[in-house]
Amino acid sequence: MAAIEQTSGSHGELREILGHVVREPLGLAGLIIVSLIVLSAVFADWIVPYDPIALNIKDRLQGPSAAHWLGADQLGRDTLSRVIMGGRVALQVALPTIAGAMTIGLTLGMIAGFGPRWLDNLILLLFDTVRSFPTVMFALAVVALVGPSLETVVLVIMATSAPTYGRVSRTQTLQLKNSEFLLAERAMGASTPRILLVHLLPNVLGPLAVLAAMDIPTVVGLEAGLSFLGMGVRPPTPSWGSLLNDGYTLIRNTPWLIIAGGIPLILTTLGFTFLGETLRDVIDPKLRARKGER
Amino acid sequence: MLAYALKRLSLAALICLVAVTILFIIIHAVPGDPVSIMLGPRATPEMKALLTSKMSLDKPLPVQISVFFGNLLRGDLGTDIFSNRPVATIVFEQVPYTLALILTSITWSAVLGILLGCYAAVRPNSLGDRLAAVLSVSFIAAPAFVVALYSLLVFAVWLKWFPAIGAGEQGDLLDQLKHLVLPSFAIGLSWVGYIARLVRASMLEVMGELHIRTARAFGLPERWITFRYALRLAILPTITVIGVGMGFLLSAAVFAEIVFARPGLGKLVIDSITTRNYPVVMGSVLVSTILFVLATTLSDLANAALDPRIRKSL
Amino acid sequence: MAGPLLDIRNLSVHYRTPRGDIKALRQVNLAIPPGQIVGVVGESGCGKSTLISAVLRLMSPNARVAEGRIGFKDQDLLVLSEARMRALRGKEISIVFQDPMQAHNPVLTIGRQMADIQYRDGTSEPEKRRRAAAMLGQVGIPDPELRLDQYPHEFSGGMRQRIAIAMALMARPALLIADEPTTALDATLEVQVIHKLKALQADYGCSILFISHHLGVIAELCDEVVVMYAGEVVEQGSVRDLFHAPQHPYTRRLLECDPGRIKERTRTLPTIPGEVPDLAALPRGCVFRERCTDAIERCATEHPAWRTLSDGHHAACHVAGQAADTKQ
User: Fold this and answer.
1) What's the distance, CA C17 to chain centroid?
2) Rounded CA gap, C46 and C292, in Å?
3) What local confidence, expressed as pLDDT, does residue C39 receive?
4) Which of B71, B252, B283, C26 is the most exposed, having the fewest neighbouring CB atoms within 10 Å of its CB?
5) For the segment A142-196, what is each residue's pLDDT rounded down to a tens digit?
6) Cβ within 8 Å, pair B150-A258
7) CB–CB of A135 and B137 under 8 A?
8) Bridge partners (DSSP) listed for residue C70
9) How far apart are the first and last CA of chain B?
10) How confident is the model at residue A230 (pLDDT cuts 50, 70, 90)?
11) Which stretches of chain B score pLDDT less than 50?
């Protein structure tokens, strides 16, 4: 009887994937950048030269110097420290958001794929509708009502990202639902939750993981954008977006704020995108090869 | 074709209906009294009472719902609390600016993207192809508003090649075009990448198919094969992507309008949020959602017009 | 023009792969006289596809012609410029492919595609349409005028194959290549298509290179048969010679295994045990030796030469010509 193998799991396989990734120049670059960002986010407290939210009015609007490598903003706060801390904030928003979106999407998608037709249609309609809202507009509408905050941003992005995961999860579920293997299992009396958890889940996680990796730059960019508009993270918490906002208002005379705020953002999105793309290119043919074996 | 069009349009209407319902639910699910939220802490009881009755907030929920939908169908999106002008008018005054921005962006990025994609597909793995691939990925990665900020910095502030603010003089087309260059460049840039990659991948797939081999075996000229036979098929997923792209562009336009201080839906929403002008916010979001649904519907219809196989299914 | 229409001499084609060179065709000799139907028989991997792509000069980028000549009307196709080769394709040489469901562009009408292949004729659009409709009628498509405006997915498999034949014969080519045109069709359809093809060939007088592994069809349609195995031609002769007095052990085994020729009822169908050798690592001597029941010592060390057994009947085998006539 043909077996649906797990798509992820053993250490050997992870190492194999990693090996493929570093062999690609873009993948290697992405991996390095991502590692740097993650490390600086984790160890932010130890590597910041100044307290990111400490005011220091006498230093205000200083250009880059020995004391302040990236200069200081209009309240005298050290830009470099804010940039480093901003990285942590970015990841603090992105990771729970994606985790949440993936969970919601995964669950709804599996239900849609496995359940009765009317439920499938209903969930699909929900997905299509949520995806019809231009994301930023929708976020703005919610923010208008409940006020800007980190939590709001996380929840809104979670809600608007979930349908994408949902669709993929549903497609995988539908494919597997009709496969002979699953029919055989059910003929042997396996219960629905068991089928979902033990057989469906591992196979759905693979494509979803790739999707999540590609989603991180989008979410990071979205959070930064909303903070830039003043609709996201509240001051004094440093966010790359709010840094850019400060920089924008001062753009004519003090361009280093914009440069300092934008470059880490671009680097982060580039790094994750390179990594995600390479991961997808590596995992996709493997998935296809496995499917051919069945 | 007609049957398909009708089905697709009714689906679009259904989605709009559900979207509106969701917005309605969100408005009313918010904790607190919407009227106080809207009017702010300095509202007098008389102002609150007036607004409450104007928005029928004192009636039972079913009545509110039917009033809401009834108004919608008549095109009434409510009234602006400050100026007393109909929200619909205010919103639709701004729509043309945003539309101009979006349409310009998608046009240049689609044309450039398709050409780049075709080029890369007929010369796969060449230096040009690999360069284009790296550039595409990079363009896709950078968030639109950062690109907007940097274009502002470099081209408007430092080089002074293009204006930094506004949409240009009314009636002066050239001036308006000049004002469109930087914003549409900023938000279109990531789309060039997307579209180029998609076209390249689709073309490579199509070129490998058997019917292309047949066309070659019949001695058809290579240019015919690329454009008339292969691109015709490969373009279909791109059309869908462009439709979906309109939604992203609507979001990106918000940033472009703020960065370049352009009038439009985005600026309207941001300003209205700052002034707590609730009905205008909701009206704008609603209109932009409907525009998006329209865009995806149009792209699906275009697909069906080009691909006879789609018309058989929905 | 005297001599064969298509004259393949000593053709060897290799594919460059990371594993090494795959020698897909080795010193293949094949001649098609004008107005004759030559069948090519062989199992998967025998080199039929490579042969076709070589004649059309539409080989994959990693293919390399190591030696040989493909003579067509006194030209060597292998040395022609691409432009001149393209002029021949669809005009002097045309092809019907195996899978009718994938042969046509799905988003263009049949009429459009049939008009497009007439682009060299310089005729008007209505004239092209008229010719296309006439051709559709010839292959037995009802209401051809109407059907020109339909799309491929609106036709059944059998009809699509007929359309493919119509397209291939529309330019009155000198040589039609038919790559297993009936493999994807069921038996009744197969019979119809073969009869149609025979009738059209009689009308137009073109030569046909007919590739198939269906021996019954070969027997009915072809004048001459060529048997290929693992990139080599192992036997060639008239239909009569090959089916009544096959000399190469492979040919004999093929005939034995053909379900259509089995007279006794058995529970198991005969097969040829073993597998085709790895074309990147060929054995010494005869390429069929490992699966051959008549092999002698010489077969393992010396590659058999192409021998003439009787008039028009040739084989590459050390033991051929020594076995008695085997009548089934």
Assistant:
1) 25
2) 16
3) 94
4) B71
5) 888 887 888 888 888 899 889 989 988 888 888 877 776 667 777 777 666 676 6
6) yes
7) no
8) C8
9) 11
10) confident
11) 314
* B23 close contact with A: CB closer than 8 A: yes
Nearest chain B Cα distance for residue A71, angstroms: 18
Nearest to A87 by CA among A250, A236, A255, A269: A269
Residue C34 carries which DSSP code?
T
Helices (H), A115-251: 117-132, 135-146, 150-177, 180-187, 192-194, 201-228, 240-249
Q: What percent of chain A has pLDDT over 70?
A: 86
**Residue A236: cis peptide before it, omega within 30 degrees of 0:** yes
Q: Is C28 exposed, middle or buried (0-12, 13-18, 19+ CB in 10 A)?
A: buried
Using CB atoms, pick whichever of B16, B142, B288 lies closest to residue A137: B288
Distance from CA of B218 to the nearest CA of A (A): 33
Q: Within chain C, how many helices (H) and strands (E) appear?
A: 11, 12
Interface confidence, given as ipTM, is 0.83
Tokens of B104: 């310009």
Interatomic CA distance for residues A108 and A166, integer angstroms: 6
> What are A285's two structure tokens?
């043919």
Q: Which amino acid is at C232?
A: E
Question: Cα B173 to the chain's mean position, in Å?
Answer: 23
Query: In B123-172, which residue ranges form alpha helices assigned H by DSSP?
Result: 127-141, 144-151
Three-state SS at B14? helix
Distance CA A218, CA A223 (A): 9
Q: What single string gives the DSSP state of each residue in A238-293?
A: --HHHHHHHHHHTTTT-THHHHHHHHHHHHHHHHHHHHHHHHHHHHHHHHHHHHHH
Tracing tokens 């990659």 back to the chain, one arrives at B197
* Res. C114: pLDDT tops 90: yes
For C166, residues 6+ apart whose C-beta sits below 8 A from its C-beta are C114, C132, C135, C136, C138, C139, C141
Q: Write the single-letter amino acid at B158.
A: W
Place of tokens 């990371």: C18
pLDDT tens digits along C285-320: 888 888 888 888 888 888 888 888 888 888 888 887
**Cβ neighbours of residue C286 closer than 8 Å, sequence gap 6 or more:** C292, C295, C299, C300, C303, C304, C316, C317, C318
* C-alpha to C-alpha distances, C245 to A211, C80, C240, C242, C292, nearest whole angstrom: 64, 39, 8, 5, 18
CA–CA distance, C21 with A50 (Å, rounded to integer): 65
